[in-house]
From TrEMBL:
Keywords: ATP-binding, Kinase, Nucleotide-binding, Transferase
GO MF, one annotated term: ATP binding
Signal peptide positions (record): none
UniProt-recorded name of the protein: 4-diphosphocytidyl-2-C-methyl-D-erythritol kinase
Organism: mine drainage metagenome
Residue spans crossing the bilayer: none
Length: 66
C-alpha cells in the first residue's frame, strides 16, 4: 500500500529488492578511483518500494520515515 499522499500525485513506485552479500572482496582500483569488486550475492524475496516524483525546479529532496 502506498504512503498517504502518494497515490495519484505524480509519484511512481520502484522496487528496491534486498540482497545478501555472501562474499565481497576488493580486488583492485580503477583509474577513476572506484574499486574493482568481486562479489557473490543472493537476492531475497523481500525488499522495499521506493516512491519517486520529478520536481519542476530540478531540486532533489530526500524524505525518510513513515
Amino acid at each position: 500500500m502506498p504512503p498517504v499522499g502518494v497515490e495519484g500525485a505524480g509519484w511512481s513506485a520502484w522496487p528496491a529488492p534486498a540482497k545478501l552479500n555472501l562474499n565481497l572482496r576488493i580486488i583492485g582500483r580503477r583509474a577513476d578511483g572506484y574499486h574493482l569488486l568481486q562479489t557473490v550475492f543472493r537476492l531475497l524475496d523481500w525488499g522495499d518500494t521506493v516512491y519517486l516524483r520529478a520536481r519542476g525546479d530540478g531540486r532533489i529532496v530526500r524524505v525518510s520515515g513513515p
